[in-house]
Write a structure and sequence with these properties.
Strand content: 25-35%
Helix content: 25-40%
Radius of gyration: 19 Å
Shape: globular
Number of helices: 10
Order of helices and strands: EHEEEHEHEHEHHEHEEEHEHEHE
Amino acid sequence: MTIKIVTDSTATLPKELIEKYAITVVPLSFSIEGVIFTDGDLTLSEYMDKMDAAENLPKTSQPPVGVFSEVYHALTADGSTVISVHMSSTLSGTVEAARQGAMLVPGNVHVVDSGYTDQALGFQVLEAAELAEAGKTPEEILSALAKMRENTDLFCGVSSLRNLVKGGRVGRVSGLIGSILDVRVVLYMKDGALSQFKKGRGAKTFKKWLDEMADTLTNSGRKIKEIGITHVEALDFAETMRATLQKFVDLPIQILETTPIIATHTGRGAFALMFVYE
């Protein structure tokens, strides 16, 4: 049995791994002052410049049901099974569009809500791809992904709440006071739910949180399988995080730029830190 892997463009993955495992990436889209772009048309730097110059915050859109249907038709035409892993349903309707698209094809398609986004989604996609290459069954792969979801933590730091407020995301974050725009906030995502983890004013907020995180990991005794870091023009702090946390994991920590879709809501200076535990 051949198993093919599909995801969406919010899965932050190195291009070489996408190519190595022949992962199909279905892109989301965004519009800036009425001009529609497909995620991937612009580099993150180009996108941020256009976003800053625009009067209104860009609007992001999930892939249409028909696009998923076409992708699944093509991939299952030879009898292959598809495992399609997507960003959390609490953040986007992408996974629901994928499910509807799967219902329109006769082939065997398993749609998975990762409960996350960014590299935390990417980790699940790569796990599925590696297991598929190793000859595991769809049931074994789906079980492994469920276990990985349970053992994943995602933290996101934003330097300003302005984009979250404009994009209507603040209401989805438990405990977050939307009227305080210029505080630095660390959000925590688990099982699709976003909550406020830490907030404060000034650059020291993130460094204090990082030091506390290192202390927690030192005393927790939990074995970490992998750590991922992404950022939106926050490379200096991303490197500080890697230098602080590399000792807790055997695999090298990758630092990647996140996607324009995610950057729309986080703004400049944001970062994400993701853990997968054994």
